[in-house]
């Protein structure tokens, strides 16, 4: 009777251990790049294909006989669950699959670095948790002031304007990764401020601070100073919009100030 009880207990323990067996974790060692390559396990490569921060999509390359059945995206900032991402097998290629969600990432998670957890199995049915680093959208902080630095011209039957102005700008950017991450001026109404170390487009970079203190002339009698800067990485774009009114003889003031993550 005792032997039966011991045998029953051992079987129950083995069943419990089997039920809670954990998957083998495979880390992403390529940083927060668009491409991730794995040297072992069921997945050989993952490529992030989404371009907007509210969405997420990626292509998965599987090794022979492998499969993935679900995926979940988690915030690396607060460890919260962001969204479940369904996996779609490629009917034409047994070694390919894709994941994707549209307009599913909440506003407060757009700039969070994230990790995609893929539940996958190799040809021997060994369970793996394949991790994919996903950058958050670029973080952009732009402090800029514009002050009169010339005369004010009154025009009959039209708006007046400042002939020159001084721009003091500090543009602090964290692109969350370096590869394929850059910033550029997308609109300026013909007046280049050279915000990125004297140019309108940066090289690829992870993070940097761009400063400017310079007087510009308003040769084309513009009523506004209009600047839109956009920074982008593998998972999203952040756009900063600054518009200053140049038609008030008493000074120059902000007309529009927006930060748009898309």
Report on this model:
- With 262 residues, the chain is mainly beta.
- The protein folds into two domains: 22-134, Immunoglobulins (Immunoglobulin-like); 139-261, no CATH class.
- Helices cover 7% and strands 48% of the residues.
- The strands form five sheets. It has a five-stranded mixed beta sheet, with no helix packed on it. Strands 2-3-4-8-7 form a five-stranded antiparallel beta sheet, with no helix packed on it.
- Strand 3 (43-48) and strand 4 form a beta hairpin.
- The protein is elongated, with a radius of gyration of 27 Å.
- It starts with a helix and ends with a strand.
Taking pLDDT < 50 over at least 5 consecutive residues as the criterion, the unreliable ranges are 1-19
Total beta strands = 19
Distance between the termini: 69 Å
> What is the average per-residue confidence, as pLDDT, rounded to a whole number?
92
Which descriptor suits the 3D outline?
elongated
Count of structural domains: 2
Tell me the major beta sheet.
5 strands, mixed
The gyration radius over C-alpha positions equals 27 Å
* Beta-strand share of residues: over 45%
Amount of helix: under 10%
Strand numbers in spatial order across the main sheet: 1-10-9-5-6
Can you write the helix and strand succession as a string? HEEEEEEEEEEEEEEEEEEE
Number of helices: 1
Signal peptide: 1-21
Keywords: Signal
